[in-house]
From TrEMBL:
SUPFAM superfamilies: ADP-ribosylation
Gene3D superfamilies in the cross-refs: 3.20.170.30, RNA 2'-phosphotransferase, Tpt1/KptA family, N-terminal domain
Family per record: Belongs to the KptA/TPT1 family.
General function of this protein: Removes the 2'-phosphate from RNA via an intermediate in which the phosphate is ADP-ribosylated by NAD followed by a presumed transesterification to release the RNA and generate ADP-ribose 1''-2''-cyclic phosphate (APPR>P). May function as an ADP-ribosylase.
Pfam families: PTS_2-RNA
Record's keyword annotation contains Zinc: no
Official protein name in the record: Probable RNA 2'-phosphotransferase
Length: 181
């Protein structure tokens, strides 16, 4: 596979494994997995002929590690970014005392009033360090970093999870646990 073909296949895989499996007649299980032979067959019916070695190459060389095989390599899924409902199996974890949320100054008024909401994602995203949070906030304008009293929240019964790439996740952060730094 050329680099261009590899990128093109990766984009197509993101589309079917995150958003529209039914487009090529696939189904994902509740954890987002689909069968590798079934995937290869479904692709070949759409004139995308890939060997198992090609698919392994696409997965291994992906710059953001967007896909993963299961242990015996019979199933594949996207690691994140789904719009279809899947449970990726994040484990509940005790958070540190303080986590950070990077946002932009124009959202702060609303956030302090109604808390941090997950908007279109599956969770509110929190960072373990201030610098990472600042980078996240910068995507949306003049950044500001808010502190989240995570250990206190956990003690009050809120669940926290950590993704494979280190992002902290929770359902909602009530205003009482948010402190401007
Ligand atoms: C804001 C990227 C008004 C919130 C990044 C944020 C991150 C509110 C925006 C990851 C609010 C949602 C997540 C409220 C929250 N009123 N605004 N009550 N509550 N907001 O993109 O945290 O490339 O869904 O502050 O690196 O910015 O996708 O979340 O500004 O890790 O892998 O609503 O996305 O990673 O924006 O970013 P987002 P986020 P990926």
């Amino acid at each position: 596979l050329s680099e261009a073909e590899t990128t093109q296949i990766s984009k197509y895989l993101s589309l079917v494994l995150r958003h529209k499996p039914e487009m090529i007649g696939l189904a994902l299980d509740e954890n987002g997995w689909t069968d590798v032979p079934t995937l290869l067959h479904a692709l070949s019916r759409r004139q995308i002929t890939l060997s198992l070695a090609d698919l392994r190459h696409v997965v291994a060389t992906n710059n953001k590690q967007r896909f993963a095989f299961n242990d015996d390599q019979t199933r594949i899924r996207a690691n994140q970014g789904h719009s279809v409902e899947v449970a990726l199996g994040y484990e509940e974890k005790q958070p540190p005392a303080l986590l950070y949320h990077g946002t932009t100054v124009r959202y702060v008024g609303d956030i302090l009033e109604e808390g941090l909401k997950k908007q279109s994602r599956h969770h509110v995203h929190l960072s373990a360090d201030e610098a990472t949070a600042r980078t996240v906030g910068q995507r949306r304008g003049k950044p500001i970093v808010l502190g989240v009293k995570a250990a206190e929240m956990a003690a009050a019964g809120h669940s926290f999870y950590q993704s494979a790439n280190g992002v902290w996740l929770t359902e909602h952060v009530p205003p009482a646990f948010i402190e401007p730094l």
